[in-house]
């Protein structure tokens, strides 16, 4: 485990719960000392953590990924699987293709976490019921993909097969956009003076919650994602229409109904179980249709995957 | 108590906890039956609830306030205090001036509640630590104002003195804007297809929480509030700048820092206790400066109010 912040630290804890042997590394000495004091084996270099490992997990901010890849490349075992936990998958995939093109890489993005950060926020139960995007490109080794999906299932998460491009487009709408709207609300909501600071309550508090996140992390989840432009355009258009209606003395009811229906419809989705072969094309389609994996079965006939998909 | 939805029902429960005698009325028979079955005295008409009452509380949606005032007007005792719990105060004040101009009216807005609604969501602890705007206009009877403030303190809330216009301007930013952004997020966040529905998690979930609110209620909290236009303009401008930066290959860091600083600064505000006379001008200034009332003291020398205000 390279990087022991909230996500990496939570993974370190969660993976040890499964009985696997796991070793951590973090270049920040205080973070490393924290993990060590909590009883986890922590190495003094990334090389020592990587050498001989069957699975290497990158858990550092996107801006540090390429340097980390260059540093670990000479130490990666031939058959080792490499994965990561970053929000955007295209830039990581590009870096892997440049730096360690022969690695058995599966890009990963557990949609877990809070607005907190750091080893002290690590929680082994963080991944329970969390969607976990796993990239499945034409060059992806399907056995490596299944191995990472199996680990995610063991941690209680819901692996979602997707290409890096599809996952980044989805993330623009469900992570980038919510964060930018929360930042805009946090700043504009309080710009009206002290009386507003007193009256800010429920809707302001939850609406701006993720503005508590470290700003540099929010930037790495948004910057350079082309799909975020379209998502922002759509949200701005909705707000501009609302603004024009307000000026014309018309109601906000239409916008409120659109939002309400989308949110309630999302909550009320229904799913049904499916069984899938370890076939990249079928898995990609399963993810694109809104499905995820619940378990990996291995027997004499090979590997099968159980999953859930939208009922309609 | 006229209206026994989430706010009115919560008030009915909370006020009885203080030992005061309270009677409820709701035109919806199922709601009235629910309150009656829970052991509360419920009248068959608003007239019966209002007649002889020292305090009458309106707790219906804004669209029903004027009709309610016309219906109760003939039954209001001469010295009775009239208050309400609606989000916008200017339209209620206007209706009171038209329909019951002689009433001892204090507009009220407890910033309590969730995205739920109805008697079944009523909770006597809903008002604990909740800001509660109380309008203080030139014509407001200061004794009536203090009486309502005292009741709000007894329920654990924090009465905030404000003119109706000032409170509506503040509410545009801390209620109207968060709701419109949540509606826009709820709708636009999920418009990218089934994969996005699977990956929507923490930031989407809290960011769109208040889109679960009944759309007609959201509309009554926004429609006709002129200050909401400026608040929307400011948020749209922030998002448009972010969009332009994204297209130019620049970072979202500046927006994220502005939002983070506003939110964290708000959380870290510090306050100091103050003592105030029951003077309308001083109370209005106290509210405008970010202060609220914590207790009403009555002794031989008259009435004094204790409060908190920003330390700086």
Account of the 3D structure:
With 312 residues, the first copy, chain A, is an alpha/beta fold. Helix content of chain A is 47%, strand content 15%. Chain A has a three-stranded parallel β-sheet with strand order 1-2-3, with helices on both faces. In chain A, β5, α6 and β6 (158-162) form a beta-alpha-beta unit. The model of chain A has no long low-confidence stretch (mean pLDDT 93). The interface between A and B is large, with 106 and 105 residues.
- In whole angstroms, the N-to-C terminal distance of chain A is 39 Å
Structural class of chain A: alpha/beta
The mean pLDDT of chain A is 93
The number of E-state strands of chain A comes to 9
Largest interface, by Cβ-Cβ below 8 angstroms: which chains and how many residues each?
A-B, 106 and 105 residues
Biggest sheet features of chain A: 3 strands, parallel
Question: What series of H and E elements makes up the topology of chain A?
Answer: HHHEHEHEEEHEHHHHHHEHEE
- Shape descriptor of chain A reads globular
Rg of chain A over CA atoms, rounded to whole Å, is 21 Å
Strand content of chain A: 15-25%
Helical stretch count of chain A?
Answer: 13
Helix content of chain A: 40-55%
Poorly predicted tracts of residues of chain A: none
The main sheet of chain A orders its strands as 1-2-3
Brief description of this entry?
Two copies of one chain form a homodimer. The first copy, chain A, has 13 helices and nine strands.
Name the features.
alpha/beta, homodimer, 9 strands, 312 residues
